[in-house]
Every structure is written in C-alpha cells, then in structure tokens.
Amino acid sequence: xxxxxxxxxxxxxxxxxxxxxxxxxxxxxxxxxxxxxxxxxxxxxxxxxxxxxxxxxxxxxxxxxxxxxxxxxxxxxxxxxxxxxxxxxxxxxxxxxxxxxxxxxxxxxxxxxxxxxxxxxxxxxxxxxxxxxxxxxxxxxxxxxxxxxxxxxxxxxxxxxxxxxxxxxx
Length: 170
Hints:
By secondary structure, this protein is mainly alpha-helical. The chain contains nine helices and no strands.
C-alpha cells in the first residue's frame, strides 16, 4: 500500500488475514492499480480475449467443414487442459506438460495470432479503462449470439466412453 502509514498497513493486513485473504499471498498495491489491472485482465484477456479467440477458432473449423462437436472439444473443452498446468506452474510448465506439436504451436502460431495490431488494441483498451471510458454506461445490454455451444450430454457421454475420446460408432 504505497503511501500508507505503517499503522494502516498493519490494519489492512490484519483484516485480510482475518477474512482468509492472506492464504494465497498479499501484493501491496494501490486501489487504482488493482482496479485497472483487474478490469484489463477480465476484459482484454480472460473474458474478452479468450472467448473471442475460442469463437474465432471454432468458426474457422466449422466453416472448413469440421463437425461442430469436434470443433467444440478442440477449441473450448480442452482449454482447461492447458489452463490447469499454466496456473499450476506458469508458462514453462504448461509447455513442458503439452505435446511437442502443441508446444511448437505455442512458439510459432501464437505470435501469428497475437500481432503488433493486437498489442496496439490492448493498449487502447487499457487506456479506455484508465480514463474510465465505459461503453456500457447509459446503454442497454445486448448479448451477441454465437453458434458455439456445448454438445449434448449424450454426445459427451459417448465421447468419454471411448478410451481415446473418439466416437468410433461401436
């Protein structure tokens, strides 16, 4: 808590400990830094970026003639298989945990997706957040639709019953 007195720092840490907030660690920060990084992470990466990337990948596969169920599993369902090791041990652990072809994609395909234009757009989004420019203010909420949807429970059960995750029709 930059600029905080020692007494207020100790009181804040005591409150954090009292509600269980210190188990994962405490990062000393400002209200502005916490708010702006949280909004950026949610809007540009975790929700806005990931969901847009998943939808675009799904649409690419379906438009190329692949089954919607396969596109869903490859682009959406398997996301957790990548995020878990990423969360557990960071980027290098995730690379260690995936196949060689997946790691190759990280090194060679990722930079083709996140381009200089993507980085420039991320900077614009951060600036909007820093300037408190909320496009939701004063407008009604609309929910864009997507053709990406979870396969039926029957499809998932059939797929899971196969050792390799393939529906071999038998």
